[in-house]
Specification:
Layout: E1 2-3, H1 5-9, E2 12-15, H2 23-36, E3 40-44, H3 48-54, E4 61-66, H4 75-87, E5 92-96, H5 99-103, H6 108-122, E6 127-130, H7 138-151, E7 155-157, H8 169-179, E8 184-188, H9 194-203, E9 205-210, H10 213-227, E10 232-233
Parallel strand pairs: 2-3, 2-9, 3-4, 4-5, 5-6, 6-7, 7-8, 8-9
Antiparallel strand pairs: 1-10
Helix pairs in contact: 4-6, 6-7, 7-8
């Protein structure tokens, strides 16, 4: 498949999840998203209303992070926060699973995913499930992807970017091999240059979460210009 520069831009969730982010930082994030036509701004839940106002009249989504970055909240709390984010104009949700309960190997994680997907889909909003793979074994990643294949969130996501490690090509491939075309994969964490970005797309990622979106876009633009092409072929 041939990707144009804008196709690549529309894979990017432009991210600022720092605790000390100011309103000026949020405005800059949204202005950059509009300039480069990124798919979404990925922000903490409390920034939803402000960013949605900045992006009003565009096709760029406001993505609220729920239970971020630890996932250590009850299902009821996550559902409440999701509803609050939606009320404040968020139109995509990324939530972190409860890793403690995943490792307990009980039904909790499936129920959590079902309830989070249900509240998002009730409002026609994409739901992304953050695994935080740096804390998981390969078997746990596979098991969680199998649950997702059954429950059908819109995306499963590698990382928060706040754990001990970020996205890995082998993890994206593993996740995609399990869910196939039923669920999409988002890679996030440590993706800072165009080579890493392209590697994740080739591995099967349909969305890339990163704070280096502008740098990556400009690098891809230079690469296409140097090669005198209007797109890059991606085989996966």
């Amino acid at each position: 498949m041939k990707y144009t520069l804008d196709d690549f831009a529309r894979l990017i969730d432009h991210t600022n999840l720092h605790a000390d982010a100011t309103h000026e930082d949020m405005k800059k994030l949204c202005d950059e998203a509009k300039k480069y036509h990124f798919k979404m701004v990925a922000i903490n839940q409390v920034q939803s209303k402000f960013c949605a106002e900045q992006l009003k009249g565009t096709d760029i989504d406001t993505g609220a992070a729920i239970a971020f970055p630890l996932g250590q909240q009850t299902i009821e709390s996550k559902v409440f926060d999701t509803k609050d984010a939606i009320k404040n104009s968020a139109n995509e949700i990324d939530y972190v699973i409860n890793i403690t309960e995943l490792k307990a190997k009980n039904y909790y994680i499936k129920r959590e995913m079902q309830e989070m997907v249900a509240v998002c889909h009730e409002h026609n909003i994409p739901c992304k499930v953050i695994f935080e793979n740096c804390y998981l074994t390969k078997d746990e990643i596979k098991k969680l992807a199998e649950i997702a294949k059954e429950v059908k969130p819109d995306f499963i996501k590698t990382s928060t970017c706040f754990g001990t490690g970020g996205a890995k090509v082998e993890d994206v491939k593993l996740m995609k091999s399990v869910v196939g075309d039923d669920v999409k994969v988002k890679a996030a964490g440590g993706i800072r240059n165009s080579d890493d970005f392209l590697a994740m797309v080739r591995a099967g990622a349909d969305r890339i979460g990163c704070s280096a979106g502008v740098k990556i876009y400009e690098a891809l633009k230079r690469r296409m210009g140097d090669d005198h092409v209007d797109g890059i072929e991606i085989n996966r």
